[in-house]
Amino acid sequence: MSGGCGIASTKERVITLRLWHHFHNERGRKPMLTLLYRSDAVSLLPFSALADICVRSSANNRRLGVTGFLVEHEGTFLQVLEGEPDVVNKLFDRISHDERHCNMAVLGRWERPGRSFGFWAMNFGPLDDPSFWQGEFADLRDGAAFRRKSGDAETALAVLCRAYVFAGTVAGTDPVIRGFVLGYPPATTQPASL
């Protein structure tokens, strides 16, 4: 992943380390497809509707063995899905026919022996924390700029990476978010070796 996630706190470093170990412990398993895409909402959805989509997706993804992460900013969605290639392709085909969004574009497809976003069956990373928009992401806070620049795969992946680490930090303390975990427990304490 891009090094631009801006990981600053000890808690974020602990979670990132655990995610790294999780990814490397998946080596040797069958190839996984990582699919990254963006789309625009036909109409803005309230947070409750986004949370409902995430809860339903999480249950479905657990059943399918798919993991994923979603962010939304002023009507623009970025999402990553990971799992066995046939399963992810079928799921994406279904998602691409969802009439709640348009202007869908696949930004990347990678097959590799493991997951980079394997922490949750699905989670939603709201981008409402002011610290998210600091540094390299400052110019993306404007909705029009985010929409325009989110079509770049590297930018989209960097946004998802930072939001993913932030959500992992929150999951260490929030039992509601922790409920979306696929099976890898979130970090709740700092290991003594750090």
Provide a descriptive summary of the structure in words:
This protein is 39% helix and 21% strand. Helix 1 crosses helix 5 (153-171). It has a five-stranded mixed β-sheet with strand order 4-1-3-2-5, with helices on both faces. It is an alpha+beta fold.
Keywords:
5-stranded mixed β-sheet, 6 helices, disordered N terminus, 194 residues, alpha+beta, disordered C terminus
Write the layout of secondary structure elements.
Layout: H1 10-25, E1 32-41, H2 47-64, E2 67-73, E3 76-83, H3 85-96, E4 101-112, E5 124-126, H4 143-149, H5 153-171, H6 175-178
Number of helices in the DSSP assignment: 6
What's the N-to-C terminus distance? 22 Å
Runs in which pLDDT lies below 50 for 5 or more consecutive residues are 1-17, 181-194
Radius of gyration: 16 Å
Instruction: Give the class from helix and strand content and strand pairing.
Output: alpha+beta
Mean pLDDT: 77
Describe the strand arrangement of the main beta sheet, using strand numbers.
Answer: 4-1-3-2-5
Question: What string gives the helices and strands in order?
Answer: HEHEEHEEHHH
What does the main sheet amount to?
5 strands, mixed
**Overall shape:** globular
Number of strands: 5
Q: What share of residues is helical?
A: 25-40%
The oligomeric status of these chains comes to single chain
Which strand-content bin applies to the residues?
Answer: 15-25%
